[in-house]
């Protein structure tokens, strides 16, 4: 029983997990040094409210992302209509907008002088108070608008890659459309939905931008305040350890409920014949997708364009602006590529050699994502200062921090793609004389190409938007677009922050185009 767990995939997975555990070791070493009276103080005062705030926010965001992501993915994947390609882009482009930019834009829009605030007063009068975003509902709205594309991408890919014969057989035997969806389609796409919602939950648990902008007390914001306000690293590490345990508990429960239901779908020669939408369906489709697009992308884009135009008119953009954009692209490309390579053995080991060890590696690979960005950066910083001081302050340290931070995105995406591949195809390759590496290169990787491309794009976009780790670990003079957005937005310089935010959106378009092109070619 032990030898299969220590094959090449297991060994590589172990090395990657050790790298990912660097911030966790920092958290554990500092948290055990916290005196007992301070632990009791945290349990008796802050922890109950932090638990409630964090769990309530995560639940609301997951519900919102599920409704927005699954419904939009099904409409676009299962209906042919005019403007379908445009709708596809509108559903995924919100990924390019950081949560702190979302929060800043909507607080500006909902201000008395903002577009939405002025519209609210016009419709309901001065006596009606403008909705407040500085509460759990406002934060959940911002995080759902920025996070639902994760659910959309994986669900849409799973719908396109599912087996059309199953639904056609059910339809021939008299099943209604609703029965086909709940009894055939939903079980087949359940792994993708579960993986995407796990991503969303991890994003919520570790989000710093929106909760700090809207001053909503969660574990992440409290950890940041302990580190930067009180310089109490032991209390911050203690709160981080509790956050890690909370996230790992969620992941273990999610894996437990999903482990007994596994569905495979081999690539089929027959492709989907998508039904054309009727006039009534077309009206419903564009009403729903248009409403989502309006608040998730069109309004933020209009805000960025307006203030970017003001910046161009005022000539506030210098040549250094393009250097910030180049720095962001370079570090995001490097981090995404390294992350995809590092995540592959973990996904292979877990799907093909299931054991307690593969489950442990899978859960441990997620620790960097559930920790706040500042904690990950401090863990990596401590590691390099104590072991490899020559690499501190270099791109290598920043790259490792980003890989640790976003490794779960790559693992979840690739593991979801691998879970849909029938193992018998790989076994047939081995029976016909192909070795493990040849089978991986010629069979497994081509069949999971969509999942790998989606994983690369997701990591690229998140690395492009990452703020706390970049602030702490970037080399001297290596400013990125998120760093400049944070600096300028904190000083209320909208005409300078908006162009950087707009450039983030523009920089993600080629990566998203590659992902969509890969999906179209495979289907």
Sheet with most strands: 2 strands, parallel
* Total domain count: 1
* Distance linking N and C termini: 39 Å
Mean pLDDT, rounded to whole units?
Answer: 79
**What is the percent of helical residues?**
over 70%
How many beta-strand runs?
2
CATH topology: MetI-like fold
Report the radius of gyration as a whole number of Å: 23 Å
CATH superfamily name? MetI-like
3D structure, described in words:
The protein has 523 residues and is mainly alpha-helical. It has a single domain (22-522), classed as MetI-like (MetI-like fold). The protein is 78% helix and 1% strand. The protein is built from 25 helices and two strands. It has helices spanning 8-20, 22-31, 36-44, 47-78, 84-92, 99-109, 115-124, 136-161, 164-172, 177-206, 209-213, 219-228, 233-259, 279-314, 320-352, 356-364, 367-370, 373-387, 395-419, 423-431, 436-447, 449-465, 468-473, 481-490, 494-522; strands at 79-80, 275-276. It has a two-stranded parallel ribbon. Helix 19 runs antiparallel to helix 22. The longest helix is centred in the middle third of the chain and has 36 residues, at 279-314. The chain is globular and about 65 Å long. The chain starts with 7 loop residues before the first helix and ends with a helix. The relative contact order is 0.14. The model is unreliable at 1-5 and 266-270 (pLDDT under 50).
